[in-house]
Amino acid sequence: MKKAGMAILPLIVIMLLFLLVHLPKVAADQLLYVGNKKCIACHRAEFQSWQKDSHSRALDNLKPGNKGDAKIRAKLDPKKDYTTDASCLVCHSVGSGKPAAPGADLTNVGCESCHGPGSKYRSPAIMSKKKYQENRAGQHKMALEAGLTEPTERVCITCHNADNPFNKGFDYKKMIEMVKHKP
Ligand code: HEC
Ligand code: HEC
Ligand code: HEC
Ligand code: HEC
After folding, report:
1. In the structure, which protein residues have their CB atom closer than 6 angstroms to any atom of ligand 4?
2. What is the mean pLDDT of each run of 10 residues along the chain (183 residues)?
3. Ligand 1: which of 127, 135, 140 to mutate, judged by most atoms within 8 Å of the beta carbon?
4. Which of 62, 103, 153, 163 yields a CA-CA distance of 20 to 30 A from 24?
5. Separation in Å, CA 130 to CA 42, 47, 120
Protein backbone atom coordinates (compact mmCIF):
# COMPACT_ATOMS: atom_id res chain seq x y z
CA MET A 1 0.00 0.00 0.00
CA LYS A 2 2.65 2.46 1.13
CA LYS A 3 4.82 1.75 -1.92
CA ALA A 4 1.97 2.50 -4.33
CA GLY A 5 1.41 5.83 -2.58
CA MET A 6 5.08 6.78 -3.00
CA ALA A 7 4.95 5.96 -6.71
CA ILE A 8 2.12 8.42 -7.24
CA LEU A 9 3.99 11.29 -5.58
CA PRO A 10 6.29 12.21 -8.52
CA LEU A 11 3.24 12.14 -10.78
CA ILE A 12 1.46 14.66 -8.56
CA VAL A 13 4.54 16.88 -8.55
CA ILE A 14 4.69 16.78 -12.35
CA MET A 15 0.99 17.64 -12.59
CA LEU A 16 1.40 20.59 -10.20
CA LEU A 17 4.38 21.88 -12.20
CA PHE A 18 2.36 21.58 -15.42
CA LEU A 19 -0.45 23.63 -13.89
CA LEU A 20 1.97 26.26 -12.56
CA VAL A 21 3.50 26.74 -16.00
CA HIS A 22 0.25 26.70 -17.97
CA LEU A 23 -2.35 28.40 -15.77
CA PRO A 24 -0.99 31.97 -16.13
CA LYS A 25 -0.85 31.45 -19.90
CA VAL A 26 -4.48 30.32 -19.98
CA ALA A 27 -5.46 33.40 -17.97
CA ALA A 28 -3.47 35.75 -20.24
CA ASP A 29 -4.93 34.20 -23.39
CA GLN A 30 -8.48 34.56 -22.16
CA LEU A 31 -10.59 37.01 -24.17
CA LEU A 32 -12.41 39.52 -22.00
CA TYR A 33 -15.38 41.79 -22.64
CA VAL A 34 -14.14 45.34 -22.02
CA GLY A 35 -17.24 47.51 -22.61
CA ASN A 36 -18.07 50.23 -25.17
CA LYS A 37 -15.89 52.88 -23.49
CA LYS A 38 -12.82 51.08 -24.81
CA CYS A 39 -14.06 51.45 -28.39
CA ILE A 40 -15.61 54.89 -28.71
CA ALA A 41 -12.46 57.00 -28.62
CA CYS A 42 -11.53 55.50 -32.00
CA HIS A 43 -15.06 54.83 -33.31
CA ARG A 44 -17.06 57.97 -32.56
CA ALA A 45 -19.24 57.66 -35.71
CA GLU A 46 -20.27 54.05 -35.00
CA PHE A 47 -20.93 55.00 -31.39
CA GLN A 48 -23.26 57.84 -32.40
CA SER A 49 -25.07 55.58 -34.81
CA TRP A 50 -25.44 52.85 -32.15
CA GLN A 51 -26.88 55.39 -29.70
CA LYS A 52 -29.86 55.89 -32.05
CA ASP A 53 -30.47 52.13 -32.13
CA SER A 54 -32.72 50.42 -29.52
CA HIS A 55 -29.83 48.06 -28.63
CA SER A 56 -28.29 50.96 -26.71
CA ARG A 57 -31.37 51.07 -24.44
CA ALA A 58 -32.04 47.34 -24.10
CA LEU A 59 -31.65 47.41 -20.31
CA ASP A 60 -34.50 49.94 -19.91
CA ASN A 61 -37.03 47.30 -20.88
CA LEU A 62 -35.98 45.20 -17.89
CA LYS A 63 -36.86 47.96 -15.43
CA PRO A 64 -40.12 47.78 -13.46
CA GLY A 65 -42.95 49.77 -15.04
CA ASN A 66 -41.50 49.81 -18.57
CA LYS A 67 -43.52 48.03 -21.30
CA GLY A 68 -45.98 46.85 -18.63
CA ASP A 69 -48.70 45.74 -21.05
CA ALA A 70 -46.27 43.76 -23.20
CA LYS A 71 -44.89 42.06 -20.07
CA ILE A 72 -48.38 41.07 -18.92
CA ARG A 73 -49.10 39.60 -22.36
CA ALA A 74 -45.82 37.64 -22.12
CA LYS A 75 -46.85 36.40 -18.62
CA LEU A 76 -44.08 38.40 -16.92
CA ASP A 77 -44.52 40.56 -13.82
CA PRO A 78 -44.67 44.26 -14.87
CA LYS A 79 -43.66 45.39 -11.35
CA LYS A 80 -40.60 43.15 -11.11
CA ASP A 81 -37.08 44.49 -11.59
CA TYR A 82 -35.47 42.17 -14.17
CA THR A 83 -32.24 44.20 -14.52
CA THR A 84 -30.24 41.64 -12.52
CA ASP A 85 -32.05 38.55 -13.83
CA ALA A 86 -29.51 36.40 -15.68
CA SER A 87 -32.21 34.81 -17.82
CA CYS A 88 -32.96 38.26 -19.32
CA LEU A 89 -29.42 39.71 -19.27
CA VAL A 90 -28.21 36.96 -21.58
CA CYS A 91 -29.83 38.97 -24.42
CA HIS A 92 -30.15 42.46 -22.91
CA SER A 93 -26.48 43.01 -22.00
CA VAL A 94 -22.95 42.36 -23.29
CA GLY A 95 -21.28 38.97 -22.85
CA SER A 96 -23.53 37.91 -19.97
CA GLY A 97 -21.86 35.28 -17.79
CA LYS A 98 -18.64 35.34 -19.85
CA PRO A 99 -15.21 36.60 -18.64
CA ALA A 100 -15.04 40.39 -18.42
CA ALA A 101 -12.42 43.01 -17.57
CA PRO A 102 -12.78 44.50 -14.06
CA GLY A 103 -15.06 47.55 -14.06
CA ALA A 104 -16.30 47.05 -17.64
CA ASP A 105 -19.76 48.56 -18.28
CA LEU A 106 -21.63 45.74 -19.96
CA THR A 107 -25.14 47.16 -19.78
CA ASN A 108 -27.34 47.11 -22.92
CA VAL A 109 -26.54 45.37 -26.21
CA GLY A 110 -23.15 46.93 -26.95
CA CYS A 111 -20.36 46.89 -29.53
CA GLU A 112 -18.98 43.57 -28.36
CA SER A 113 -22.40 41.86 -28.51
CA CYS A 114 -21.97 41.90 -32.31
CA HIS A 115 -18.19 42.27 -32.69
CA GLY A 116 -16.92 39.89 -30.00
CA PRO A 117 -14.89 40.35 -26.77
CA GLY A 118 -12.45 43.21 -27.38
CA SER A 119 -9.58 42.81 -24.90
CA LYS A 120 -7.13 41.76 -27.63
CA TYR A 121 -8.28 43.08 -31.00
CA ARG A 122 -8.74 46.63 -29.67
CA SER A 123 -4.98 46.92 -29.29
CA PRO A 124 -3.35 49.56 -31.54
CA ALA A 125 -1.06 46.80 -32.85
CA ILE A 126 -4.12 45.32 -34.56
CA MET A 127 -6.58 48.20 -34.92
CA SER A 128 -4.24 50.71 -36.52
CA LYS A 129 -5.39 52.99 -39.36
CA LYS A 130 -1.97 52.79 -40.99
CA LYS A 131 -1.76 49.00 -40.84
CA TYR A 132 -5.31 48.62 -42.19
CA GLN A 133 -4.42 50.93 -45.07
CA GLU A 134 -1.33 48.89 -45.86
CA ASN A 135 -2.90 45.45 -45.56
CA ARG A 136 -6.62 45.31 -44.82
CA ALA A 137 -7.02 41.55 -45.33
CA GLY A 138 -4.02 40.77 -43.13
CA GLN A 139 -5.18 43.02 -40.29
CA HIS A 140 -8.72 41.65 -40.57
CA LYS A 141 -7.38 38.12 -40.20
CA MET A 142 -5.31 39.17 -37.16
CA ALA A 143 -8.38 40.79 -35.60
CA LEU A 144 -10.45 37.64 -36.14
CA GLU A 145 -7.72 35.58 -34.47
CA ALA A 146 -7.82 38.03 -31.55
CA GLY A 147 -11.54 37.55 -30.92
CA LEU A 148 -13.30 39.80 -33.45
CA THR A 149 -16.44 38.19 -34.85
CA GLU A 150 -18.05 38.90 -38.22
CA PRO A 151 -21.40 40.59 -37.45
CA THR A 152 -23.42 38.12 -39.50
CA GLU A 153 -26.92 36.67 -39.11
CA ARG A 154 -25.39 33.89 -36.98
CA VAL A 155 -24.56 36.50 -34.31
CA CYS A 156 -28.01 38.12 -34.44
CA ILE A 157 -29.88 34.89 -33.89
CA THR A 158 -28.02 34.13 -30.67
CA CYS A 159 -30.55 36.68 -29.25
CA HIS A 160 -33.20 37.06 -31.94
CA ASN A 161 -34.72 33.64 -31.40
CA ALA A 162 -37.66 31.90 -29.76
CA ASP A 163 -36.13 32.08 -26.23
CA ASN A 164 -37.07 35.77 -26.35
CA PRO A 165 -40.42 36.05 -24.50
CA PHE A 166 -41.43 38.77 -27.00
CA ASN A 167 -40.22 37.01 -30.14
CA LYS A 168 -41.99 38.29 -33.23
CA GLY A 169 -39.78 36.38 -35.62
CA PHE A 170 -36.59 37.73 -37.21
CA ASP A 171 -36.39 38.93 -40.79
CA TYR A 172 -32.63 39.36 -41.19
CA LYS A 173 -32.74 41.24 -44.52
CA LYS A 174 -35.03 43.87 -43.03
CA MET A 175 -33.46 44.00 -39.55
CA ILE A 176 -29.86 44.35 -40.74
CA GLU A 177 -30.76 47.61 -42.51
CA MET A 178 -31.92 49.00 -39.15
CA VAL A 179 -28.61 48.36 -37.34
CA LYS A 180 -26.03 49.21 -40.03
CA HIS A 181 -23.90 52.11 -38.79
CA LYS A 182 -24.88 55.29 -40.54
CA PRO A 183 -22.55 58.27 -40.80
C1 HEC B 1 -6.80 52.51 -30.94
C2 HEC B 1 -8.04 52.82 -31.64
C3 HEC B 1 -9.07 51.72 -31.69
C4 HEC B 1 -9.71 51.10 -30.63
C5 HEC B 1 -9.48 51.30 -29.14
C6 HEC B 1 -10.70 50.21 -31.23
N7 HEC B 1 -10.62 50.28 -32.59
FE8 HEC B 1 -11.74 49.22 -33.90
N9 HEC B 1 -10.60 49.90 -35.44
C10 HEC B 1 -9.67 50.91 -35.35
C11 HEC B 1 -9.09 51.17 -36.66
C12 HEC B 1 -8.06 52.24 -37.00
C13 HEC B 1 -9.72 50.25 -37.54
C14 HEC B 1 -9.51 50.13 -39.03
C15 HEC B 1 -10.42 51.12 -39.65
C16 HEC B 1 -10.39 51.08 -41.13
O17 HEC B 1 -9.46 51.61 -41.70
O18 HEC B 1 -11.33 50.48 -41.69
C19 HEC B 1 -10.67 49.48 -36.74
C20 HEC B 1 -11.51 48.50 -37.23
C21 HEC B 1 -12.58 47.95 -36.52
C22 HEC B 1 -13.57 47.05 -37.07
C23 HEC B 1 -13.54 46.48 -38.49
C24 HEC B 1 -12.47 45.41 -38.42
C25 HEC B 1 -12.39 44.49 -39.58
O26 HEC B 1 -11.29 43.93 -39.76
O27 HEC B 1 -13.39 44.27 -40.27
C28 HEC B 1 -14.45 46.76 -36.07
C29 HEC B 1 -15.66 45.86 -36.16
C30 HEC B 1 -14.00 47.47 -34.90
N31 HEC B 1 -12.88 48.18 -35.21
C32 HEC B 1 -14.64 47.42 -33.67
C33 HEC B 1 -14.05 47.85 -32.48
C34 HEC B 1 -14.58 47.57 -31.17
C35 HEC B 1 -15.87 46.82 -30.90
C36 HEC B 1 -13.71 48.13 -30.26
C37 HEC B 1 -13.79 48.07 -28.76
C38 HEC B 1 -13.79 46.76 -28.14
C39 HEC B 1 -12.64 48.76 -31.04
N40 HEC B 1 -12.88 48.56 -32.37
C41 HEC B 1 -11.58 49.44 -30.49
C42 HEC B 1 -9.29 51.57 -34.20
C43 HEC B 1 -9.65 51.18 -32.91
C1 HEC C 1 -26.89 40.24 -27.25
C2 HEC C 1 -28.18 40.03 -27.91
C3 HEC C 1 -28.45 40.65 -29.26
C4 HEC C 1 -27.70 40.54 -30.42
C5 HEC C 1 -26.39 39.79 -30.62
C6 HEC C 1 -28.43 41.26 -31.44
N7 HEC C 1 -29.56 41.80 -30.91
FE8 HEC C 1 -30.93 42.96 -31.90
N9 HEC C 1 -31.94 43.25 -30.15
C10 HEC C 1 -31.64 42.67 -28.94
C11 HEC C 1 -32.55 43.15 -27.93
C12 HEC C 1 -32.56 42.76 -26.47
C13 HEC C 1 -33.41 44.07 -28.57
C14 HEC C 1 -34.52 44.87 -27.92
C15 HEC C 1 -33.97 46.17 -27.47
C16 HEC C 1 -34.97 46.84 -26.60
O17 HEC C 1 -35.01 46.51 -25.41
O18 HEC C 1 -35.76 47.66 -27.12
C19 HEC C 1 -33.00 44.10 -29.97
C20 HEC C 1 -33.61 44.89 -30.95
C21 HEC C 1 -33.27 44.88 -32.30
C22 HEC C 1 -33.91 45.67 -33.33
C23 HEC C 1 -35.07 46.62 -33.10
C24 HEC C 1 -36.31 45.79 -33.19
C25 HEC C 1 -37.57 46.55 -33.07
O26 HEC C 1 -38.62 45.89 -33.21
O27 HEC C 1 -37.53 47.75 -32.82
C28 HEC C 1 -33.31 45.34 -34.52
C29 HEC C 1 -33.65 45.91 -35.91
C30 HEC C 1 -32.27 44.38 -34.24
N31 HEC C 1 -32.27 44.13 -32.87
C32 HEC C 1 -31.44 43.79 -35.18
C33 HEC C 1 -30.32 43.02 -34.90
C34 HEC C 1 -29.40 42.52 -35.89
C35 HEC C 1 -29.52 42.73 -37.39
C36 HEC C 1 -28.42 41.84 -35.21
C37 HEC C 1 -27.21 41.16 -35.77
C38 HEC C 1 -26.33 41.94 -36.64
C39 HEC C 1 -28.76 41.91 -33.79
N40 HEC C 1 -29.91 42.62 -33.65
C41 HEC C 1 -28.01 41.35 -32.77
C42 HEC C 1 -30.64 41.77 -28.70
C43 HEC C 1 -29.61 41.45 -29.59
C1 HEC D 1 -33.18 35.04 -26.28
C2 HEC D 1 -32.98 36.46 -26.05
C3 HEC D 1 -33.86 37.22 -25.09
C4 HEC D 1 -34.17 36.89 -23.78
C5 HEC D 1 -33.74 35.65 -23.00
C6 HEC D 1 -34.97 37.98 -23.27
N7 HEC D 1 -35.15 38.93 -24.25
FE8 HEC D 1 -36.27 40.63 -24.08
N9 HEC D 1 -36.01 40.97 -26.08
C10 HEC D 1 -35.18 40.26 -26.91
C11 HEC D 1 -35.26 40.81 -28.26
C12 HEC D 1 -34.49 40.32 -29.46
C13 HEC D 1 -36.20 41.86 -28.21
C14 HEC D 1 -36.65 42.77 -29.36
C15 HEC D 1 -38.01 42.39 -29.83
C16 HEC D 1 -37.95 41.53 -31.03
O17 HEC D 1 -37.36 41.95 -32.02
O18 HEC D 1 -38.52 40.42 -31.01
C19 HEC D 1 -36.65 41.93 -26.81
C20 HEC D 1 -37.60 42.84 -26.34
C21 HEC D 1 -37.99 42.96 -25.02
C22 HEC D 1 -38.98 43.91 -24.53
C23 HEC D 1 -39.75 44.91 -25.37
C24 HEC D 1 -41.01 44.22 -25.86
C25 HEC D 1 -41.90 45.12 -26.69
O26 HEC D 1 -42.98 44.64 -27.06
O27 HEC D 1 -41.51 46.25 -26.98
C28 HEC D 1 -39.08 43.72 -23.17
C29 HEC D 1 -39.99 44.46 -22.20
C30 HEC D 1 -38.17 42.64 -22.82
N31 HEC D 1 -37.53 42.20 -23.97
C32 HEC D 1 -37.99 42.14 -21.55
C33 HEC D 1 -37.37 40.94 -21.25
C34 HEC D 1 -37.39 40.32 -19.95
C35 HEC D 1 -38.07 40.89 -18.71
C36 HEC D 1 -36.68 39.15 -20.07
C37 HEC D 1 -36.40 38.09 -19.02
C38 HEC D 1 -37.56 37.55 -18.34
C39 HEC D 1 -36.23 39.06 -21.46
N40 HEC D 1 -36.66 40.17 -22.14
C41 HEC D 1 -35.47 38.02 -21.99
C42 HEC D 1 -34.40 39.19 -26.56
C43 HEC D 1 -34.48 38.50 -25.35
C1 HEC E 1 -26.45 44.85 -33.47
C2 HEC E 1 -25.10 44.55 -33.87
C3 HEC E 1 -24.03 45.62 -33.80
C4 HEC E 1 -23.69 46.41 -32.73
C5 HEC E 1 -24.35 46.43 -31.36
C6 HEC E 1 -22.56 47.19 -33.15
N7 HEC E 1 -22.22 46.90 -34.43
FE8 HEC E 1 -20.64 47.58 -35.48
N9 HEC E 1 -21.24 46.57 -37.14
C10 HEC E 1 -22.36 45.76 -37.21
C11 HEC E 1 -22.56 45.31 -38.58
C12 HEC E 1 -23.69 44.42 -39.06
C13 HEC E 1 -21.49 45.87 -39.34
C14 HEC E 1 -21.23 45.71 -40.86
C15 HEC E 1 -22.23 46.49 -41.63
C16 HEC E 1 -21.95 47.97 -41.56
O17 HEC E 1 -21.01 48.41 -42.19
O18 HEC E 1 -22.66 48.70 -40.84
C19 HEC E 1 -20.69 46.64 -38.41
C20 HEC E 1 -19.53 47.33 -38.75
C21 HEC E 1 -18.70 47.99 -37.84
C22 HEC E 1 -17.40 48.59 -38.16
C23 HEC E 1 -16.71 48.53 -39.51
C24 HEC E 1 -16.73 49.87 -40.18
C25 HEC E 1 -18.11 50.34 -40.48
O26 HEC E 1 -18.55 51.33 -39.86
O27 HEC E 1 -18.78 49.72 -41.33
C28 HEC E 1 -16.94 49.18 -37.01
C29 HEC E 1 -15.65 49.94 -36.84
C30 HEC E 1 -17.95 48.95 -35.98
N31 HEC E 1 -18.98 48.22 -36.52
C32 HEC E 1 -17.84 49.41 -34.69
C33 HEC E 1 -18.85 49.31 -33.73
C34 HEC E 1 -18.82 49.96 -32.44
C35 HEC E 1 -17.68 50.84 -31.94
C36 HEC E 1 -19.96 49.63 -31.79
C37 HEC E 1 -20.45 50.08 -30.42
C38 HEC E 1 -20.58 51.52 -30.21
C39 HEC E 1 -20.72 48.73 -32.67
N40 HEC E 1 -20.01 48.60 -33.84
C41 HEC E 1 -21.92 48.13 -32.35
C42 HEC E 1 -23.16 45.39 -36.14
C43 HEC E 1 -23.12 45.94 -34.88
Report:
1. 36, 39, 43, 46-47, 50, 55, 109-111, 113-115, 151, 179-181
2. 64 69 64 97 97 97 97 97 97 97 97 98 96 97 98 98 95 96 88
3. 127
4. 103
5. 13, 21, 18
